[in-house]
Design brief:
Elements lengths: L5 E6 L26 H4 L5 E7 L9 H8 L6 E5 L4 H10 L4 E5 L4 H8 L4 H14 L5 E7 L7 H10 L3 E6 L16 H17 L3 H17 L14 E4 L4 E3 L11 E2 L5 H5 L2 H12 L7 H10 L2 H11 L12 H7 L5 H7 L14 H16 L1
Parallel strand pairs: 1-2, 1-7, 2-3, 3-4, 4-5, 5-6
Antiparallel strand pairs: 7-8, 8-9
C-alpha cells in the first residue's frame, strides 16, 4: 500500500444516551463486548484526520486509551459528542490538549432538548463548552443537524459560537442505515434555506478564510436540501473510510444499506483495502445517486478539488458587500417559478417512508436489541 495518508472516521460505539428525533441508533446499540478494540485500532493506516464518533463515544470508559492509540496513527483527531459526560470530556482534554471536541447542540434550550430527547441536554452541553473555553482548549466547537424544527435557531447559535471563538458545524437531515432512519425529510425547503442563507452571509462577512470555505459548505447544504447533485465529486472509499464498532470498514455512513469493504478484526489493512470486495464497493460509490453532503465526505472533496470552492469564495468576496443569494442555485429559482414541484423535490431526497431500515448490526447484537426491546415492553 502507498504511504498516502487517509481521512478516517472511527465509530467506537453504537450505544447512545440521547433519544434524537432524527436518529434511531439508540434503538439498535452495539454490545460492549463486540466494540472495536485497541488491537483492531492498532491495525488502522496512517491518517491526516480522524473523527471519533458514535453513538455517544464518551459512553466508552476506555476512550482515552483509544485516543492515545489513534494519535500514533493520525495527525489530527476530532471527537463528536453530545457533551453530556462533562467530567470525562474535561479529563480527556487535559491529557490530550490537541484533540478537537465538537458538541452537538440542535438549537436553543427548548428546541435542543425537544429534538435530542435528553433532559437538560442543552445545559449539559453548553456548560461543557464553557468549561473547555475557560481551560483555553484550542480546538472546540459545536454543530447542529438542520431541520424544519430548528432552522430559526441557526443564526443565534452561530453568534454564540462566534462570541466564544468556537467552530460552528452544520449538517442536514439524512437517512441511512447508520441513523436507522429512512423518513427524515425537510418539508419547508425555502424557509430552511433562507436560514442557511443568513448563515452563509454571516460567515462570508468574517475575517476568517476558514469561515469563507465553511460558507461554501453551507451553500452546498442548500443544494442538497433541494435534492440536487453534489457540487463536488464523492471519493469515499478511495481516500476516505469509516470503520464501525464491529471492525467493518465502509465507504461512509450515508448509504441506504451497510456497504462493507472488509473487516479489520480478521484482515490486515492492506489486504482489506486492496481486496476485490473493496473494489466492488468503490464501483458502487461511483454509481451512488444519494448526493449526500455531510462534512465527512464534503470536507475531503473540498480539499481535493480546492480550486472549485476557492473560486466560489473569491467571487463572493469580490462582490464587495453584496450579499450571497441562494437563488444562484437554479433549482431554487425553478421551485419558486413553478418549474419544479415539491413532490418532485421530495422524490429527489433520500426519504423513503416505505423503506425497511437495515441497522447494520451483526446477528448477536440484533438478538440482544430484540431482547432489550421485549424487556422494556414487559416493565
Amino acid at each position: 500500500m502507498a504511504d498516502k495518508k487517509l481521512n478516517g472516521t472511527v465509530i467506537v460505539t453504537y450505544r447512545c444516551n440521547a433519544r434524537c428525533s432524527m436518529c434511531n441508533r439508540y434503538k439498535a446499540p452495539s454490545r460492549p463486548e463486540d466494540e472495536i478494540s485497541l488491537e483492531t485500532i492498532e491495525k488502522l493506516p496512517s491518517m491526516y484526520f480522524t473523527n471519533i464518533t458514535g453513538g455517544e463515544p464518551f459512553i466508552r470508559t476506555d476512550l482515552n486509551d483509544i485516543v492515545r492509540e489513534l494519535f500514533k496513527k493520525s495527525d489530527r483527531i476530532v471527537i463528536s459528542t453530545n457533551g453530556f459526560f462533562t467530567d470525562r470530556i474535561i479529563e480527556l482534554c487535559e491529557e490530550f490538549p490537541q484533540v478537537g471536541i465538537r458538541i452537538s447542540i440542535e438549537g436553543l434550550r427548548q428546541t435542543n432538548d425537544d429534538i435530542r430527547g435528553l433532559e437538560n441536554g442543552f445545559e449539559r452541553g453548553y456548560s461543557t463548552l464553557k468549561k473547555l473555553v475557560e481551560m483555553k482548549h484550542p480546538d472546540v466547537g459545536f454543530g447542529m443537524t438542520i431541520q424544519d424544527r430548528n432552522a430559526a435557531d441557526i443564526a443565534p447559535l452561530y453568534r454564540i459560537s462566534d462570541e466564544m471563538g468556537m467552530e460552528f458545524a452544520t449538517a442536514s437531515l439524512h437517512n441511512s442505515f447508520y441513523f436507522v432512519e429512512a423518513k427524515n425529510i425537510i418539508n419547508d425547503r425555502p424557509m430552511v434555506a433562507r436560514s442557511i442563507e443568513d448563515l452563509v452571509n454571516e460567515l462570508l462577512k468574517s475575517n476568517s478564510p476558514k469561515k469563507w470555505f465553511r460558507a461554501y459548505f453551507n451553500h452546498g447544504l442548500i443544494n442538497y436540501i433541494y435534492g440536487q447533485p453534489r457540487l463536488l465529486p464523492c471519493d469515499m472509499a478511495f481516500d476516505t473510510f469509516f470503520i464501525d464498532p464491529y471492525g467493518d470498514v465502509m465507504p461512509c455512513n450515508g448509504t441506504e444499506d451497510k456497504e462493507v469493504m472488509g473487516n479489520l478484526k480478521t484482515q490486515s489493512w492492506d489486504e482489506l483495502w486492496n481486496s476485490p470486495q473493496a473494489d466492488a464497493v468503490r464501483a458502487k460509490v461511483r454509481r451512488c445517486d444519494r448526493a449526500c453532503w455531510m462534512i465527512g465526505s464534503a470536507s475531503p472533496a473540498m480539499h481535493k478539488y480546492i480550486w472549485k470552492p476557492a473560486w466560489w469564495v473569491l467571487r463572493h468576496k469580490l462582490k464587495l458587500g453584496k450579499k450571497y443569494d441562494m437563488h444562484e442555485l437554479k433549482v431554487v429559482r425553478d421551485y419558486e417559478e413553478g418549474g419544479v414541484t415539491k413532490e418532485q423535490l421530495d422524490a429527489c431526497s433520500t426519504c423513503n417512508t416505505h423503506a425497511a431500515v437495515n441497522d447494520g448490526l451483526p446477528e448477536a447484537s440484533k438478538y440482544d436489541a430484540a431482547l432489550s426491546k421485549q424487556s422494556r415492553r414487559c416493565k
